[in-house]
Prior knowledge:
DNA-binding, 13 helices, disordered N terminus, mainly alpha, single chain
Amino acid sequence: MGRQPCCDKIGLKRGPWTIEEDHKLMNFILNNGIHCWRNVPKLAGLLRCGKSCRLRWINYLRPDLKRGAFSENEEDQIIQLHACLGNRWSKIASHFPGRTDNEIKNHWNTRIKKRLKLLGLDPVTHKPIDVKENAEKKFQTIVESTSENLIESSTETEEKQSELELTSNKETTKVLQGYEMLWSGMDVEQWLNLDMNVSNISSPSSMSLESLNHSSGESSTQQEKPLQQWVDSVDSILLWDDFNHYQEEFFF
DNA sequence: AATGAGATCAACCGCGTGTTT
DNA sequence: AAAACACGCGGTTGATCTCAT
């Protein structure tokens, strides 16, 4: 026989987490660490499956999370990494301490994709979108709209097509120059070579109070009190906005 | 002020891989 | 060796928020 199942889904709570549930999970993990997600909900007194607890911890409750908007520099780095790694969000996230794969994935899908499209780049291939094809489409539209007005001469329409292609070629060159500038500013290869090291350092699923204390270089007894204060202070989501203050004081 | 569209993001789902029995 | 499972990952969904009309 194999392992026992992680959870039977009957009677388990789903949907958004309550503050009380967050408290329970945080208290449990900070006091006991994470050894087996399957046991976490049972031992923490939660009616959730282990998978859900893991996700909540990694994406929201982890003390080392960096919250707030992505900077333009971070976005540029994500774009570069995505060009090399594709949709391997966890790999990409490992280059951004305090950011989660889910966060980066969401940011990519909602903002960066649009930004790239505006730059005339395909978000999947990172190559310029075929502007000639676009020009032809535009041309087709013009032809269709002008076909109703047959008075216009065909030579005039051809001139329009040449004009469109010329314009789109200029746009492409501009975009490519910008993209080249972006890439030349960073040593991606060297960055990617650090991949393994970075991944080893930031392993959010295998942390404990003990490891947090060790990483800060202070004894656990010195840490316990403020840590508990921190846990107790999380009474609403809004309080997380002030988290950086606690982070500096307790963990790093 | 009401409403609809678009944007955002937390959470779920299903699958692949590695681990345990 | 094979079955059964946990874990982690990427894709997707849907609730909520924001903004324009």
